[in-house]
Amino acid sequence: MSMLTGDDTISAIATAIGEGGIGIIRISGSKAMAIAGKLFISKSGKTVDSLLSHQVMYGHIIDPASGETVDEAILLSMRAPRSYTCEDVVEIHCHGGPVPLKRILDLTLVQGARLAEPGEFTKRAFLNGRLDLAQAEAVIDIIRSKTDASLKVAVGNLSGQLSEQVRALRHAVLRMIAQLEAAIDFPEEDIEEAAAADVAQLIAEAKSRLTTLLATAQTGRILREGLATVIIGKPNVGKSSLLNALLREKRAIVTDIPGTTRDIIEEYVNIGGIPLKIIDTAGIRDTADVVEKIGVERAKALVEQADLILLLLDSSAPLSPEDRAVLELLPGKQAIVLINKSDLPARLETEEVEKYTGGRLVLKISVAREEGLAALEQAIVDMVYGGQVSPGEAAFVNNVRHSAALRAALERLNDAEATIEAGMPSDCIVVDLREAWEKLGAVTGDTVGEDIIDQIFTQFCIGK
Known about the structure:
Elements: E1 10-13, E2 20-28, H1 32-39, E3 40-42, E4 55-62, E5 69-78, E6 89-96, H2 98-110, E7 114-115, H3 120-127, H4 133-143, H5 148-158, H6 161-185, H7 192-214, H8 217-225, E8 227-233, H9 239-246, E9 253-255, E10 267-271, E11 274-278, H10 281-286, H11 290-294, H12 296-305, E12 308-314, H13 321-327, E13 335-340, H14 350-357, E14 362-364, H15 373-385, H16 400-421, H17 426-444, H18 450-457
Parallel strand pairs: 1-7, 8-11, 8-12, 12-13, 13-14
Antiparallel strand pairs: 1-2, 2-6, 3-4, 4-5, 5-6, 9-10, 10-11
GO molecular function: hydrolase activity
Binding site for (6S)-5-formyl-5,6,7,8-tetrahydrofolate: 26, 91, 130, 464
Keywords: Cytoplasm, GTP-binding, Hydrolase, Magnesium, Metal-binding, Nucleotide-binding, Potassium, tRNA processing
């Protein structure tokens, strides 16, 4: 991929907003060393220009206009192409307060840098060929990872696990195209029919590989975005107690901080590596009763948003009209039915419950005694992975854009297969195969439009 056009040098704060031990200002571009040289005075007397790539110097940031010392700092030099952006990059590591960071950033802008756009450092890494588009998107997935499992998927994609499989598929499709075009170019050899038969076999193999990859998409999406989960049930059935049990201290809770990469705060509970995104957490905590105080319509709205419903019933009481109203929300949804208070004398008839559950998993638990919670956790893990290998062992499709492109490629392969079965000319088969090849290229960025690229990188933080 060609290098960036233009000669802009960009600068931004690369660390999170707020107070911290260390803050970093990142500068990238042909003027990065010169700009840093105007601001940084080494304690040893060395100049920034004298630094070799990946060396550091200790010193101070000075305002050239006033001679004022702004902060104590360490300067790190990374010469092109051995840097994140493949350009000259300088990082200024100073104290992590908002005032010194902003002062130093402003000084870099005064000296000729411009403020980086969201994701522009990673965009330059992509445009300069250091990362493909799938790897670049994995960077933001790493930043937003909610559990170790989601981190492993993102790191695997950054290392090229997904890209390697997609490139192998593109290469296979390209070989099919070459084989058919060779048959078209030499009609006197009468090999066109044989070539089509060979390609039909190759298409079947490519479809199988693509189907296997797409089978990871649902799990990958959940690991990336979280399993949207709602807890519903009648009054006093134990919803708040279950939520508190899930949120106990040994669980990891991850909160996205506003102003970094996202605009909203969401609460996630780590269940065996699966990030459960609890829907309407505040509402469930504030009321012990979704059905009575919010109403069945509100419960319906929550259910519509959910990937998973945890429906609580009371083992110590017969099935009530409220229970039936909630059970009737289950059709078409993924749900686990939890019969709580199993430590008390049972008055609930499970046979009646099973009339509504449609074969869904029913677990007996006691939230008060923390019985059955391990089984619930395992059930959620099994439901999400569906028998697939765990993250780190294979490539996972965890991005809606990627899964859409892969599904479109599979459709084009199906079209090519149908074209062969209909006995149509090889050039018609080639048209379908080229479209499949292009759809696969959209994943890695080889055949994607500039508007899509811009849209992807605007989701990043400034400074990444």
